[in-house]
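Dear Dr. L.,

I hope this message finds you well. Following up on our conversation about the binding site, I have prepared a predicted three-dimensional model of the protein together with 4'-deoxy-4'-aminopyridoxal-5'-phosphate. For your records, I am including the exact sequence and ligand specification that went into the calculation, followed by the structure tokens. Please feel free to forward this to your student if that is useful.
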Amino acid sequence: MSRIVYVDGAYVPEEEAKISIFDRGFLMADGVYEVTSVLGGKLVDFEGHAVRLERSLTELGIAVTLSRDTLLDIHRELVKRNNIHDGLVYLQITRGSDGDRDFVFPNPETTSPTVVMFTQSKPGIMQSPASKTGIKVISIDDLRWGRRDIKTVQLLYPSMGKMMAKKVGCDDAWMVQDGFVTEGTSNNAYIIKDGKIITRELSNDILHGITRAAVLRFAQEAQMEIEERSFTIDEAKDADEAFVTSATTFVMPVVELDGAAIGSGTPGPVATRLREIYLDESLKAAI
Ligand code: PMP
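The resulting structure of the complex is given below.
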């Protein structure tokens, strides 16, 4: 069934959606994106995603042309028109097109950003089979650029990392820089040792996950101990548990790293509990 998507102010069937071949998102990956999950027809953590979007745009000097209220209206309209119960809304904003290819940015007075949004339906996303078994990850070098705090559409290396994992029968890759784990290809990474939740501190080296912020808040409220610091692959292999977080996988247990079982090799109690709390609270707060 054809989706209704949003392109620069218009709701159109996906087959009719068009952007220019000169769009800088296409030619130069000059754009940013957000993924907001939908549970029970409602948006999870919309405000957090809107705030990060504005920050990403500002960091790249792309104009913020849509207010938060307008963005929320468009998200809701797409969820409604496409009958999304569980799934996600993808949003991408690029620097636009001035009808040619040039390394120099187009004049923002005359070239406005391109805004594209679409939905993906993912029935049963809350009870995904992977959340029951946990996922297997490999470690790879982190070869991305230095501003990973900006959520750009430069996803080639993360995509290659995912394929490296698939090739050896695993699910995902944890990226390593100077001996320390930065994050997963599309998620933030955590280990648990002696009841303590350990995850890399925020910096330009990682994306400031919206799910990360929520999970750490819930963990704190549940009196769990949190240590925001870098950790190595060896430390992760020796951990009691591990997990990743993202808007679409929520809290996902990691049970194997580079072929070695983590803890019991099955989803651990802390990750399982955090997943339950996160889903409960997110369902309550969704708008
Ligand atoms: N790190 C990276 C590299 C990501 O791509 C993502 C998800 N897009 C995340 C972390 C998790 O962020 P969030 O919780 O906001 O989905």
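In brief: Residues 4-123 form a domain with the D-amino Acid Aminotransferase; Chain A, domain 1 fold (CATH 3.30.470.10).

With kind regards,
A. P.
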